[in-house]
Give the backbone structure.
Amino acid sequence: MASNAEKMAAGVSFSNFGKATDLKNRIWFTLGALIIFRLLSFVPLPGVDPVAQALLYQQAGSGGVLDYLNTFSGGSLERMSLIALGVMPYITASIVIQLAAALNPTLAAIKKEGESGRKKLNQYTRYGTVFLTAIQGYFLAAGLESLVASSGIQAVVDPGLLFRVVATISLIGGTLFLMWLGEQITARGIGNGISLIIMAGIVAQMPRLVGTMLDGTAKGSISGLFAMGFLVMFICLILLICFMERAQRRVLIQYPKRATQRGVMQADRSHLPLKINTAGVIPPIFASSLLLLPITLTQLGGQNVAGDNTTGDFVITLNQYLQHGQPVYLLLYGLGIIFFCFFYTAVVFNPEETSDNLKKAGGFVPGIRPGKNTETYLDYVLTRITVLGAAYLTLVCLLPDYVMGTTGQSQFFVLGGTSLLIVVNVTIDTVSQIQSHLLAHQYGDLMKKSKLRGKKSRN
């Protein structure tokens, strides 16, 4: 049977939305922050000609890895704006710190310190973000200069060391501002700020790509069968994502019999909900960011080694193998998703801690002894459902890429499974948080009414 809280949550509607002032303020703050993010994507780097940059991007980035990065940054890379690198350096730094915290005893001890330890790790993540953004920013500026010789288009007004330094500092400032903006959304808005920024960038690019597909279908450059099949696959993947993200494995928890007010001995029961996809959207984001880091460096820095035939050929071959839809890329991406599925699930859910909490509360799993046996059982159940969750994420992320790679429609990779998963997952999470705020507001109204009734009865 469902608990009273679950019944209450099921009955929550958006009819009380107008009365929830705090919720409306949070939503307005989130929308305002996302508008600032979109406006920043149109502010070009100092020393870059926007018109020449647009022409240069059409030649160098369309359909490739730069196009994929451009989508995650909301078109900022195409316009070479202050936030051209987006939040990907921050995500990569987060991966490194979390992996280090799981493997390094010193960082593991810091992580166990609670709130103070979390602040220290966040500070290390910020330092790592600055370091990675500086490296990627320098390669981005150098690659932009070196593309002049091969394309004949000069996007940089005054190439040289000064431009590289200014561009790198500007990119560091843009990425750090986005990181701060995401943290503010998380604290004062609705949903996870970093995920919402990524989703906003993807959603901003989707209308243009859908328009390109429809225009190509009308002109005959894109097969109508492909467009129809893509639409059907798109809808099926949305339904699959919605179903799997809400799917749970409920572990029955039994509590010992307790005497009620009437003297009746009654045993309480509840459920421990374990999500099939405990890691959420984190594995695809982590896996793609790790893959995009070396690809970006080789693609942007490849022009600088063009004079060396051996190195240049190696860079070109590496980029060809790691392009979207290629077997090597699909294999590495799938392995990355599976690894981060298990890794992040282990970070989020601790069977030992959950078992100890159940034992302290007097709860137990029927047929399983409290303590070590319960920990082993929870770990066994979690491993089994994580296998299913990893298979689901791998299918959703790789199937569209494989289909578009085999059909030669590489320009629509940004409409693939990873982007769709992020958009649907973040939307579901945001709507759930809105419902939670409405539920809290509803409980607050009930508490106020009960206090008023209590005062009237005393009078």
Notes: Residues 184 and 193 are 7 Å apart (CA to CA). The first strand starts at residue 248 and ends at 259. Confidence is low (pLDDT under 50) at residues 1-12, 303-307. The first helix runs from residue 4 to 10.
